[in-house]
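the two lines:
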Amino acid sequence: MRRARWQEWLPPGLVILGAFVLWEGLVALLRIPVFILPGPTAVWAAYLKWQEAIWFNAAQTLYTTLVGFGLALAGGMGLGLAIGYSTLVYRALYPLLVAFNSVPKVAIVPVLVIWFGIGTIPAILTAFLISFFPIVVNVATGLATLEPELQDVLRSLGATKREIFLKIGIPRSLPYFFASLKVAVTLAFVGAVISETVAANRGIGYLMIAASSRFEVPLVFAGLVVVAAMGVALFVLFAVIERQLTGWAYRGQAL
Amino acid sequence: MTATATTTGSFVRLEHVSASYEHEGQLVAAVEDVTLAVPQGAFVAVTGPSGCGKTTLLKLLAGLLRPSRGEVRVGGVPVRGPQKNVGMAFQNPILLPWRRTLDNVLLPLEIVEPHKRRFRQQRAEYAERARALLASVGMDGFGQRHPWEMSGGQQQRVSLCRALIHQPELLLLDEPFGALDAFTREELWLVLQGLWLERRFTVFLVTHDLREAIFLADVVYVMSPRPGRVVYETAVPLGRPRSLEDTFTPPFTETYHAVRRHIGEGGGR
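prediction for all of em together
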């Protein structure tokens, strides 16, 4: 039943490797200058050279991302459950939420800087704002799509609304919740890096802006690759947690 | 034919019950002026063409729906909402997919008093009871399966166990075997009959399978097309326990023909 491990890891590994080879090949073949598009080897060299600075800044980005994401997780779960629980709350809040989500988050960063100054807090808040919405919507959707038949089973036993919510509402919405976490955590990275490129003196976004102003393009790319790698790592982490906790939704099949 | 004509002293009583539901802004009469009585421990079946309000009748008994006129009583008490002495099984098993079989069967005990109060302390005892019940329907050793790892027939057996775990006095069945193949269905008739003979709860079965109704029930009611009214009532002249062979005997076929003649009768008023 279970597929061998190599079948799970080999195809994506080969694709990533192939992409790097293609990238290096094109850069060499077309003789693209390093300050326009550096090849993977040049990026790797820049990474080795600036390793310490990259990880110093990456740690900051990871920190702001995770704090912002943590806030989004708690707030999103809470609001999502509230919206899913009560149609009144749903009707009252949904239009505002949609309007709020339509606002480009880059446009908010300068405002946040006026309020909180340059640095950590605007990055955390941007990460929070951008990853909050998908969690709310998914949790609320999970609750809203609760099958009436499932509710009838509990109602015929005299279950209260709260019991129905606890026994079937929450378990039923967990797969939706975890699906949204995988999206939200990568979005949180986007938010943190956006904020850092606009107003910060630490973080991968700041590093990339500083490097590009000095035409250290390989370093810019090294920063990008590190952000991407951290995003993938967190995605995988949540995919594993998801599989552990809501394996039933996938009927035991590996993802 | 008049076996249950008197409604006094019966366990389940419907008196001049009418009920309607709203559909696209209009009130649709689902059942009209239904009066019937079921003595404690009896097995009755209600049958009729589709859309005759059979399921509405069950919802009235389960307390999921209030009658617009008349009164529904279970155990002498007017039904005003869901009750703890009622178990219900539906056409689809509707097991909770995140729970294993055993935890699905235990679900009512987490909700119905007095079990709810004791559930944490006596979980082991309750689990033992659930395992015994599963074994009695031929599901020994299936406790740790997830619903999707079982066939439709197996899931329906689990659903029956869930409806019975809190030892309800009244079992409501809404076409419980309708989605199963003919052989599995007949197998489950025997399983249900076995459980009923052993425990003697009152059963109210809704089905459009006439053979099922006659094979299982003491009394069969036939309802007219919407708005549903009881147009025929007959006691099944077969002893217990019944075997599948009984379905080929003259009393069975005679009853079948009599019931069949009344299907579709009295529609449109």
